[in-house]
Amino acid sequence: MIRPTAFFSLLLALPLTAHADPAADYAEHCAACHGEDRLGGTGPALIPETLGRVRGIDTVIAQGRVSTQMEGFADRLSPESITALVDYVTAPLDHRPDWSAEQIAASREMNPDYQPAEKPVFAADPLNITLVVETGDHHVSVLDGDTFEVLARFATPFAVHGGPKFSPDGRFVYIMSRDGWVQKYDIWSLAEVGRIRAALNSRNIAISPDGQRIAVANYLPESLTILDSDLNPLRLIATQVDGTPSRVSAVYQAPQRHSFVLALKDAPEIWEVATTDLSIRRIPIDEPLDDFFFSPDYRQLIGANRDGDKGVAIDLDDGHKVAELPLPGMPHLGSGITWERDGRRVMATPHLGEGVLSVIDMQDWSLVKQIKTSGPGFFLRGHATSPYVWADVFFGPHKDEMHVIDKQTLEIVKTLAPFPGQTFAHSEFTRDGSHVLVSLWEDEGAVVIYDAKTLDEVKRLPMRKPSGKYNVWNKITFEDGTSH
């Protein structure tokens, strides 16, 4: 016979649930926030397309997420049940979900407490504000670019993706999440205006030159969503070629052309959508492009093929290929920048597959140099006032390094590595180019501020896994050293 004390010890040793039933656990603990269909509600969508490369889902389920409404369930679910639940939410749905124009419109949520200010509620230069995206707890910090004081910090939708976009006057910013939410924030008032869900899985957004229309590039459903500046849906454009849907790999504004330019990921076409009447011009190309970059006059589009072994330059006026570029090793053209060198315009791009930066002459499209780096990088930054390009080494064992490269000699003049073994990435200049902000891309991270001339550290600001940093002036003026 089992003694009472032994019996209770045995009970305590048993799993919290007799067997794993992830569907039932989801319905009980998750559906209220994430939707019965896993497509999201007050919480993000829990489907493979949205979760993507998100890591540590089991830890989030067990322990919750700080500074969010996500609570932990370790006291109610056994480790086996949590593992089964992770498998459940990362498995494809048994049907292909859709997101209609009516659903987009119904998702629009405006902040009833928002009151627009007549002028900025702070004394800082509103055009020297830098936004810091903190992915550790899904917030954005509003940073004074002169004093480096944090003026405000606000919550964003889950998993911000693709880079915020500013209205032409720099007052408003539009922020998009991987699961299709577009948030509008008033920098002058330091207040959210509202948000709308443009799709179920999105890549990035672009804003028209007059600030009146926002284009959202979508993977699911395969489409381009057009919103007005007040987040009202205007049009949902299905991206199809010969009746076959194609994801949109990226969309950008082409200000001189008064258009949005988008590349289709699954079809060999570039689309140009007029920002005035939303008419569509389709440009056939040899093969699909994953990402792209523009010449300063926006006449040429420079794109990378899906195999990542070459680049092409397309003339957007006549739709013909101008040149094929020697860009092996998966060039990341979305981070490309340009500058003047010896009287000629050059562009540079990092490579995701090898430790080089390629520098291309934009007049004859020849390869000027491949700069050897400590490993594959992801982001480049420069500024018209600075003689240097800042290049991270995002992937591999040297992810803790940041190269500073001379624009004229194309030589690395200094390598910064203040945090051994930790990711040190993504730089951004202040409006006047006097300082550079770099991210310690860790959960208990920081933004490190450098003097752009001496390359000496000036200040550190603790942040929760800061990723991108975006200066208002550099973005709205399309500064040479800023990717667009």
UniProtKB/TrEMBL annotation:
Q: Which Gene3D superfamilies match?
A: C-terminal (heme d1) domain of cytochrome cd1-nitrite reductase, Cytochrome c-like domain
Protein name (record): Cytochrome d1, heme region
- What is the scientific name of the source organism? Paracoccus denitrificans (strain Pd 1222)
Q: Which UniProt keywords apply?
A: Heme, Iron, Metal-binding, Signal
InterPro entries cross-referenced by the UniProt entry: Cyt_c-like_dom (IPR009056), Cyt_c-like_dom_sf (IPR036909), Cyt_cd1_C_sf (IPR003143), Haem_d1_sf (IPR011048), Host-pathogen_enzymatic-act (IPR051200)
- Keyword RNA-binding carried by entry: no
UniProt GO MF annotations? electron transfer activity; heme binding; metal ion binding
Which Pfam family, any one, appears in the UniProt record?
A: Cytochrome_CBB3
Taxonomic lineage: Bacteria, Pseudomonadati, Pseudomonadota, Alphaproteobacteria, Rhodobacterales
Residue span, Cytochrome c domain: 17-93
From which residue to which does the signal peptide run? 1-20
